[in-house]
Amino acid sequence: MKIIFLMFLVIILICFGCSEEDNPTEPTKKYSGITRTGLDNSTPIGEIDTNDWYFNKGGQWVEVFPAFPNPTKRYSYIHFTLKKQTYLKIWIDDPIAQKDTLIRNGIFHAGSYMGHLDFFYGDDNFIRKDGIVRVFFSFDSLPNIPLIYGDIQIEK
Q1: Residue closest to 154 by CA, chosen among 63, 92, 87
Q2: Is 42 part of any domain?
Q3: 85 is in which domain, residue-wise?
Q4: What DSSP designation does 114 have?
Q5: Over the chain, what is the mean pLDDT?
Q6: In this structure, which of 68, 86, 99, 114 has its CB flanked by the most CB atoms within 10 Å?
């Protein structure tokens, strides 16, 4: 009787334990919508994704401008302004490349900042696929500022 039960259990595990829908090469989350910008600055071109970035909102403490260029093939710049010293964490979630990359985590003084992003992650041989990455800005020392993010379209 134990042998029959064990065989039944093995058959159940084989049938229901493995799912063909789980494909580790496909990202589990996908971002959509970007604010298009030109090569030289963060001025939006065309329609603005109102869920992205944090500018033209009368920000008392923070402004995070759209990345440029967007879309891009490899490099992009982020630009943000802080009106007082704050603790800031910046990271990239890249579901296409299956990377979650910390850019900076620490104290920033009041001022304007520009950061350079490389979506090949410093590897000239990196195989890049088209998709959208999301850059997050978390202001832990400013509780009234929400988690800010912006999407960047990567094209081959």
Answers
A1: 92
A2: yes
A3: 30-154
A4: E
A5: 85
A6: 68
